[in-house]
Amino acid sequence: MQSRLLAVLTALAVATTLSACGQESSTAADAAKKAATEAADKAKEAATKAGEAAKDAAKEAVKDMAAGAKDAAAKAVDAATEAAAPKK
Considering the entire predicted model, what is its pTM? Predict the structure, then answer.
């Protein structure tokens, strides 16, 4: 995501530089604006995908924790049953 931000900033710098240099500056500024917009859209898409991946990872972690808790509870019940059983 930092590389996309760098691309956006570079595109804006190029647009600013070219806009100060003659009559073709309008065309160059429009192209730089388009590039900056595309870079911003890609950065937004990457951030969305990263958020979705984090959400999925959190869901998996919760599932794993629930399974671990279930196993621990079953072992605790077994241990309590064994401890409560009369010794022979």
Answer: 0.50
Residue 24 sits at φ, ψ, to 5 deg, of -80, 5
What one-letter code names the amino acid at 59? Answer: K
| H or E segment and range at residue 21 | none
- Burial tier of 80 (Cβ tally within 10 Å: 0-12, 13-18, 19+): exposed
| C-alpha pair distances (Å), 78 with each of 66, 69, 73 | 18, 14, 9
**Span 17-51, pLDDT tens digits:** 766 666 566 777 788 888 888 888 888 888 899 98
**What are the angstrom distances between the C-alpha of 3 and each of 24, 52, 56, 82, 86?**
28, 20, 24, 60, 68
pLDDT in tens, 54-79: 998 998 888 888 888 888 888 888 88
